[in-house]
Design brief:
- 62% of the residues lie in helices and 2% in strands.
- By secondary structure, the protein is mainly α.
- α2 packs parallel to α4, α6 packs antiparallel against α7 and α7 packs antiparallel against α8.
- About 3% of the residues have low confidence.
């Protein structure tokens, strides 16, 4: 009991001595602490796989690894030594030429102009520019570029530029200048089949130059015996030469035979080449005299070749209309010839019947009675 009394007295004394309670103080501002960065451990890199050594090849008596062999000398391309500017020009010219072959004339003109911005006197780029403008129907611009570049010295030494100039003069129907341009092209490159072929075709347009055209096309044929284009053009040259011989009463049979042989050779090489059929039919249709065939036979063969040309399939309506007109003209001519032959036979038959009738009646004919009776002369009028 005494113990509990002491404990109670101690508690009362402590509570009396304790300080009075105060108002709660305002909370202090807490500054935000930066969040610690989380560092991830790097992924372990796998160890590289051991390299597989190439099998050793036995060379002679010792085995030598391929790495230990002596390497051959590296060949340096010829164009890598050239300046980068020239390589770029040639690349642009090749791109322009490829687009020209694919009939993308706008792209060809653009690439050619880029090449000319680097080198203004590049003849091949100028030639491609002229052809591209000409094919795009910008004839005035192409003619201006042609006349401007003709004054430069590099124009006289470029085959492609001379060919482009010849094509421009052909479009303008200036056959003399076109002939001069193609002659320069053949002089610069004698083995150019296209230049000799174009020269022969232009000379066919000149009056009295058929023999020169034949000589040029014969040269083109000697370069390629299987060219159906050259064979057909040479046949056309012989056809026109034969027509000229007929007009001047010269021997023409061999010339016509040569033309027919060339046309038939072109058809044998390429059965679907329509211009050979057309020119052969035109020769048979227009010839005034032809060796070995009568006129009805020629017209019948011409009609067959015209129909074959139409059967091959040309989608141009204007060409098909002209072919139909040729076929109708051949049919009409054959009918007229058949009618004329029938009238001639009828006249001959009537003459024979009249002769037999006179012989049966005993009346002498005009041939047996001597000279025919003279016609009465009209009296002359006197002047007043």
């Amino acid at each position: 009991m005494v113990r509990w009394a002491l404990v109670l007295a101690t508690c009362v004394a402590c509570s009396a001595s304790a300080p009075k309670s105060r108002a709660p103080a305002a909370p202090k501002a807490v500054t935000p602490q930066p969040t610690p960065k989380v560092t991830r451990e790097p992924k372990p890199v796998p160890a590289p796989a051991p390299k597989r050594l190439a099998p050793r090849i036995k060379m002679g008596t010792a085995r030598v690894s391929p790495k230990m062999r002596p390497r051959p000398k590296r060949l340096v391309a010829a164009n890598s030594r050239r300046p980068a500017v020239m390589q770029r020009i040639e690349r642009l010219v090749r791109q322009a030429e490829d687009n020209l072959k694919r009939a993308k004339y706008g792209h060809a003109v653009r690439f050619a102009r880029e090449a000319l911005m680097i080198q203004s006197d590049h003849a091949d780029a100028v030639a491609i520019l002229i052809v591209g403008m000409h094919k795009s129907s910008h004839h005035a611009k192409a003619k201006a570029v042609l006349l401007d570049f003709t004054k430069k010295s590099s124009a006289a030494h470029s085959v492609r530029f001379q060919m482009a100039a010849g094509a421009m003069y052909e479009h303008e129907r200036d056959w003399t200048k076109a002939t001069m341009a193609y002659r320069k092209a053949t002089g610069l490159k004698p083995d150019s089949l296209t230049a000799w072929n174009r020269l022969g075709l232009v000379q066919l347009r000149l009056p009295g130059a058929q023999r020169d055209a034949v000589a040029a096309l014969e040269t083109a044929l000697s370069l390629d015996r299987d060219s159906v284009i050259v064979l057909t053009n040479l046949g056309t040259a012989y056809r026109r030469l034969a027509a000229r011989h007929v007009s001047y009463n010269r021997p023409y049979a061999d010339t016509y035979k040569r033309a027919e042989k060339l046309y038939r050779t072109a058809i044998a090489l390429r059965a679907g080449y329509a211009p050979a059929y057309f020119n052969l039919a035109l020769m048979l249709f227009e010839a005034r005299k032809y060796p070995g065939l009568t006129m009805p036979q020629r017209l019948r063969q011409a009609e067959q070749y015209f129909r074959q040309y139409k059967r091959i399939g040309y989608k141009d309506k204007r060409v098909n209309a002209s072919i139909d007109s040729y076929i109708r003209a051949a049919q009409k001519a054959r009918k007229m010839l058949a009618r004329a032959a029938e009238l001639k036979r009828e006249k001959k038959r009537r003459a024979e019947e009249l002769k037999k009738k006179k012989a049966a009646t005993g009346k002498p004919s005009k041939a047996k009675s001597g000279k025919p009776r003279p016609r009465p002369r009209r009296p002359k009028r006197r002047r007043p």
